[in-house]
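Bumping my old thread because nobody answered last time. Still need a sequence for this structure:
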């Protein structure tokens, strides 16, 4: 059964897209098939993070019914994750939406294990559309009160759509004394903390290389954190094994921005 999860924050700049792409990659390491939907149709970021080029069709073409299926706008990244990008052109802002996001993703249900929607920041119409299309919500926050307060608003909004909160990811954690503790954040949001991602320069390095941390630095502590997160979401145990084998080599050799099995 396909799980539809929206990754949301309530506040911009917390690293929501970073969590989205790395969680998706980590899930593929557990043998799951994953499609990322860039639900931030006004200011999309997934393509920038992953460097996917040559995308003749995007989510905008699906939403205004210029193409018959979302499968026509699905592309494969070298990490093994499939992506439905949103259009980067400013002209896309003028296009009329004829189909809801929930209706658009119907063609993927049953074809993949996970559909992960990278929500727009904030609590506006785009974020609401992503929450409404999903069954579950994963909240990303930084360990500061303004970010956590906005995360609470996102949790409450998701509940109004009957979208189940499954957990919190604390991102950009430095361990400073002035930061909110994971236990306080969990109590404030009434949602369990699934993972704490430390501040690490390799995240920025991976974005500059248009890749996930999990794929670019597979043996790093940050990659292990994302795999632990994926394991918790799957209800499986994760034991770290250095990733130098044939699977990683094949992902690096045969990866690339090309149409995937759902694209035609």
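Sorry it took so long. Here it is:
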């Amino acid at each position: 059964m396909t799980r539809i999860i929206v990754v949301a924050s309530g506040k911009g700049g917390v690293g929501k897209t970073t969590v989205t792409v790395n969680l998706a990659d980590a899930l593929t390491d557990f043998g799951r098939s994953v499609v990322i939907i860039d639900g931030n149709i006004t200011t999309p970021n997934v393509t920038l993070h992953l460097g996917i080029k040559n995308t003749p069709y995007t989510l905008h073409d699906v939403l205004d019914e210029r193409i018959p299926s979302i499968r026509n706008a699905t592309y494969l990244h070298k990490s093994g994750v499939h992506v439905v990008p949103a259009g980067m052109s400013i002209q896309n802002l003028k296009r009329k939406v004829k189909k809801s996001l929930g209706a658009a993703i119907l063609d993927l249900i049953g074809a993949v294990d996970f559909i992960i929607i990278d929500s727009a920041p904030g609590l506006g119409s785009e974020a609401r559309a992503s929450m409404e299309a999903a069954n579950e919500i994963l909240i990303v926050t930084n360990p500061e009160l303004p970010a956590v307060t906005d995360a609470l608003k996102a949790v409450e909004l998701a509940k109004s759509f009957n979208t189940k909160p499954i957990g919190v990811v604390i991102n950009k954690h430095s361990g400073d004394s002035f930061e909110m503790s994971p236990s306080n954040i969990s109590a404030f949001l009434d949602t369990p903390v699934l993972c704490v991602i430390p501040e690490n320069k390799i995240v920025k390095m991976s974005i500059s290389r248009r890749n996930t941390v999990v794929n670019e630095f597979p043996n790093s502590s940050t990659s292990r954190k994302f795999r632990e997160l994926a394991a918790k979401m799957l209800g499986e145990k994760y034991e770290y094994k250095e990733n130098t084998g044939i699977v990683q080599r094949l992902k690096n050799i045969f990866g690339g921005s090309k149409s995937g099995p759902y694209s035609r």
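The chain has one domain: 3-234. Let me know if any region looks off to you.
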